[in-house]
Amino acid sequence: MKYSSFEQIAQVCRGKEGLKRVAVAGAADQHVLQAVIEAHKEGIAEPVLVGDPERIAEELSKLGCPADSFETVPAYSNQECGQVAVELVKEERADFLMKGMIETRDIMKPLVDKENGLNTGRTMSMFTYNYVPQMTRLLALADGGMIPYPTLEQKKDIVMNCVESLHKLGIERPTVAILCGVEKVNPKMPETTDAAALVEMNRKGEIEGCEIYGPISFDIFMDKEIARLKGYDCPCAGDFDCCIVPSMAAGNLMHKAMIICGGTKMAGVIVGAKVPVVLSSRGASAEEKFVSMALASLLS
Amino acid sequence: MKYSSFEQIAQVCRGKEGLKRVAVAGAADQHVLQAVIEAHKEGIAEPVLVGDPERIAEELSKLGCPADSFETVPAYSNQECGQVAVELVKEERADFLMKGMIETRDIMKPLVDKENGLNTGRTMSMFTYNYVPQMTRLLALADGGMIPYPTLEQKKDIVMNCVESLHKLGIERPTVAILCGVEKVNPKMPETTDAAALVEMNRKGEIEGCEIYGPISFDIFMDKEIARLKGYDCPCAGDFDCCIVPSMAAGNLMHKAMIICGGTKMAGVIVGAKVPVVLSSRGASAEEKFVSMALASLLS
User: Fold this and answer.
1) What ipTM, to 2 d.p.?
2) B261 touching A, CB under 8 A?
3) Is the CB of A217 less than 8 angstroms away from the CB of B256?
4) Residues A281, A150: contact at Cβ < 8 Å?
5) Which residues in chain A have Cβ-Cβ distances shorter than 8 Å to B261?
6) Which residues of A touch B254 (CB under 8 A)?
7) pTM of the full predicted structure?
8) In contact, B244 and B160? CB cutoff 8 Å
9) How do residues A260-293 score in pLDDT, each as one tens digit?
């Protein structure tokens, strides 16, 4: 399996039997409701709206939707919205989560809380899936948004989160690049020794179901010809399924450079909990929100 | 003064009175000689070749040049080439340095050695000057290649190296962005507190002759409209002269993403010593080598 466009994700999602239900925490907002209405219309997910029922009805009517279009579960404060949405998943009344107009911490707190049963003990991380015009397949990128300075143990979790997500998307044995500023292991640069350690964990079977390469620099990662010139023995240079960044700052700067200077388009969810969480910001494009929901639906 | 193309750098360089002399450490190589012959022909610099005179003459003849085209100073081992080139600068027989076919450490060691008088006590850093198709002016970027994890003190030196370089290029009061993954100061993310500290040093006059902004995320840095939407009060968003990256890995990944995905073109020199050092790799394009030499000539 290989995805080369966002449209393909939506298609695969539509082809699945039974609509997944998304608990939308803090749904009383035009932008949020527009996104879930679109996702429902397109056969991506069935929303369960969590928030103030009166305000939700009001916003729905502005969008020309009857108040009873979707199941609505009352919750009033932001904290309550997060808690109730998480409980809906716990009670199997929803399959995945979406952050609406509440703060990220309002949904992360009940998600992490072991009482609610959605914390798997694994580090949670962002999983972005990207259309990169310079590549032939969609590229998973992690973690550009959750953990500022991941330890080796956390990087292992990040890799496993990505690999399991790619398996769920139908990619059997994803290739994973551990990106660094250089392609040689240097004891003075911990990100390069971490990369070597992750490759070793993969070789020993501690991280299974994927092929890990690293440390690898961005030019080798992107270009088979540069890899050949630099003598980097790696059959998937220019054609990786996934890349892991050394830190949040590095990942964020690199990812935004790809987006702003290179036309990359992203979709993203939080993975590592029992169900994925769609976390698109208000600034996200309609396409990003839609594809993120299709992605979460496939991962749940 | 504002540069918008590499051609402009070459023009300004040609317009200066008197050719600068470049000591080429390890000159007995086709690629290196091609670059210096081109720079000489274009009125950018007068080469002083350091290396084995017989081998240099041989390589010159292959390129159709008489052996006595340029001054040649004999040196045999790589270490000797570095040392002799640095001594030429010390003796004022050369104005700047270029690394030919020797290792970077072979030129850095005599450069750092206080005996040779070129070490200013300031941290040395890479100064790359970039044509970024998405921007209206050339962008200085540092440090993507010398210091893996710069301390605040080293970042201050990196900023001062850039600012002084931009002054030499005729940019009177450059605007400097301290790039981070986020635009808010977060005590848990040292790169953001460093950014705030650099802004404060600028306000107090410890770093003069520039305007420093930060922490600033890549999207705000690149786009005035995003800055406005995110409420980031900064008149030069989308129009900075210079950006400072939080670490070598972050800078390298971001810079290569701009180059490979976004069509950015770079030229680069090492600054912070008494004279600049051209350090283009064998893989560098002819344009990169040429512009790097013009840049070094203007900075020396």
Assistant:
1) 0.94
2) yes
3) yes
4) no
5) 132-134, 222, 257-258, 261-264
6) 250, 253-254, 257
7) 0.95
8) no
9) 999 999 999 999 999 999 987 777 888 899 999 9
